Amino acid sequence: MSRPVRVRFAPSPTGPLHIGGVRTALYNYLFAKKNGGKFLLRIEDTDQKRYVDKAEEYILESLEWLGLTPDESVVNPGDFGPYRQSDRKSIYQEYVQKLIDSGNAYYAFDTPDELEEMRHQAMEQGIHSQKYDASVRHKMRNSLTLTAQEVNELIQKGENVTVRMKVPTDELVSFKDIVRGQVKFDTSELDDKVILKADGLPTYHLANVVDDRLMQISHVIRGEEWLSSTAHHVLLYRFFGWEDEIAQFAHLPLIMKPSGKGKLSKRDGAKFGFPVFPLEWEDTKEKETYIGFRESGFLPAGLINFLSLLGWNPGEDQEIFSLEQLSEIFSLEKINKSGAQFNYDKAKWFNQQYIIAANPQDIYDIIGPDLARVSNNKTEAYIIEVIRMLQPRVHTLTEFKEQSTFFWSAPSEFDEKAIKKKFRIDNKEDFSNIISLVDSLVSFDTESLSSAIKGHINDNQLKFGHILPALRIWMTGSMAGPDLFEMMALLGQQETVQRLTSGLNYAVKFTNNE
Ligand code: GLU
């Protein structure tokens, strides 16, 4: 009974892709790869009012950056196109007609005012938010209440011509969801949804079901917010007589705010200072720029690993998984039912693991040009060496720049608190001796520096804690930075001697003035 696995990610280009959407795309991708199937991208742009320019490009670029390249899409069409719903208008009209002919849908001509009046009347009878359903459809202006001639005239006139699905009364719509088990809806809870709008374009429900069928989608994997719509979708499948090949549904848990209370929103990102979009997005209407994970210094692999576990549990302790590994072990059965709490520190932890494991050259390929610009003409080899030293110390790519300033030029100031704590004027002579020693070294590499300086400390019965921290402050300006001897070796003899000398002078003056 198994049919080829074909899944789709079906975003609407109404703005940037939210991180929840990225996770939906990822789970679809993984499920397709795991089962040797196909991963499609379908652009659901039938709501012209909510259409946002550049959103489609943004979606494509985001998937490309993450390496979740669709097997079929608008830029890489397969045999089931077009892959943009606005290019499929005529297809939907044909299917809407089928539903009208079979009596499962009807024309409705009600104006916005008439709809408002219907709700108002219901309100007076104590019914809040009255739906357009079996209880009112016989009172409205539609092809169920008007004569054939009136209907034809109104269609000819072309004003407010919509088509609604005719939801049967008192029935149970039931379907199996892979994540939530059996889900049931009473049709009395469902309205007669508009399936074709006055602008001639279908609504999400109709287009989504027709396309899933025509594109031979085997599994519908999407966010939990669509669970309640599924009842209408199942009815549409039934109306079309497609029940035998209905897609299997899997609704993914919501991504919750860091507090665990409520759905994660784009406002939360701005509020708490973390990205909720994969790439930067400039909102021209709101005149606001939202930073993305990419600009925040994330590697795609780090973000993917983080998202993979935000709602899915591999059932083992291992946490680090590459996209390839995930593609081998992913299963819909292991998706959690409850909401997944977003934790930015955890996201950065995953990113850090991938930065540590990366080849410095690969990191250079991403941030090299940016570092080169501030590097005071350092060579590529030098910059790669800086990257290598900082790799274990950063969580994001942006921190390389923040933490590397002393590799490009001598520190412009010293952390005075640190000098106060770590510099002992009693050791002044010892520091001078160490500087002379460093100056006289013939081979200036990490090993020689380490054994010369440590040897001097030991031979003179000094304490490491009295000497090394001060040297570090003079090299970097503060107590921060990677291995002292590696840093010195990279900066070179002349620069090291210069920094130590001016650092010692500064510390002596500073201490005498205290
Ligand atoms: N266009 C819907 C969205 O924007 C797709 C929902 C679905 O996958 O069916 O999320």
Descriptive report:
There is one protein chain. The protein has four domains: 1-74 and 253-357, HUPs (Rossmann fold, 3-Layer(aba) Sandwich), CATH 3.40.50; 88-207, Alpha-Beta Complex (Glutamyl-tRNA Synthetase, domain 3), CATH 3.90.800; 358-405, Helicase, Ruva Protein, domain 3, CATH 1.10.8; 410-514, Arc Repressor Mutant, subunit A, CATH 1.10.10.350. The protein has 21 helices and 13 strands. It has helices at 19-34, 55-66, 89-101, 112-124, 148-157, 204-214, 229-240, 266-272, 300-308, 323-329, 344-357, 360-374, 380-390, 398-403, 405-408, 416-422, 428-440, 446-459, 464-476, 484-491, 493-513; strands at residues 6-9, 38-41, 105-108, 162-165, 172-177, 181-186, 194-196, 219-223, 248-252, 255-256, 281-283, 288-290, 340-341. A three-stranded antiparallel β-sheet has the order 3-4-7. β5 (172-177) and β6 form a beta hairpin. The protein is elongated and about 105 Å long. The N and C termini lie far apart (84 Å). The mean pLDDT is 96. Residues 10-12, 44, 204, 208, 222, 226 line the site of glutamic acid.
